[in-house]
Amino acid sequence: MNVLQRFLTFNSRGAVEIIRLAWLLQRLIKQKGGIAVI
Hints:
The chain is mainly α.
């Protein structure tokens, strides 16, 4: 189980915000053309 999945299960209220944040991060990485290691 991922840490993110565990966090989402623990705090499902902020799931939408987390997904939105991850989506924005993905777009930012794609724009830069680099690979981000979290």
